[in-house]
Description:
Layout: E1 2-6, H1 10-23, E2 28-33, H2 36-46, E3 50-54, H3 62-68, E4 75-80, H4 84-92, E5 96-99, H5 104-116, H6 122-136, E6 141-146, E7 149-154, E8 158-164, E9 167-172, E10 179-181, H7 185-192, E11 197-201, E12 204-207, E13 211-215, E14 221-224, E15 229-231, H8 234-245
Parallel strand pairs: 1-2, 1-3, 3-4, 4-5
Antiparallel strand pairs: 6-7, 8-9, 8-12, 9-10, 11-12, 13-14, 14-15
Amino acid sequence: MHAILIDDEKHCRDVLEMLLQRYCPEVTLAAVCTSAEEGLRAIEQLQPQLVFLDVEMPGMNGFELLASCNRRSFSVIFTTAYNQYAIKAIRHSALDFLLKPIDKDELILSVQKALHQHPAPGPKVDALLQFLQQHMQHNERLALPTVDGLRMMPVKDILYCESEGGYTKVFLQQQDKPILICRSLKEVDEVLKDKGFFRVHNSFVINLGYMDKYIKGDGGEIIMSNGRSIPVSRNRKQDFLVRIEKL
């Protein structure tokens, strides 16, 4: 199978390319792309049979790339860190994915499945995009008030929110400095709670899609994808555990 690998992280590209060469000789890489935009052009030009597609990429992510494709007559194997909402959508559509760091045995199994289901399962990709549109509101933007006026924020870019008195600090992907908005955390929670967010503490609302791991404890703590440790209050712990079990 002629394949394309699309991932913005060099280490991940190098590892997957090495594993394919070593353990999957039936796959020939026609291109290795460093961004979704580059990958989209390669798909149109090279018309691969298989695409290894990273979910989390800046600018345009893997799901948005698929939605932008004029042709989807290829199998897809997603590669992703532990993003619960991405995995939920992929599983719902019966598509295949590999968790990073990629295990060689899982890679071999995924490649074999792709070989056996060729030509590609186009309806599964359509089902994925429909699920994202209906349930994940992936491109939804919020207009949130700051001291300077309204700030438009893509919901998918919000990592977590932290209480700051009667205000709230909003932490975004790929932005070190938080944005201070003129709303209490309670008000922010009301807006976000049905969009994949959960209030784990009186001072924090988190995007569950960016939760890296949960560490047990009295209430416990959550490590977010940017490395920030966020406490879980004892009185919210049980509801939190029930919530993530449904993902």
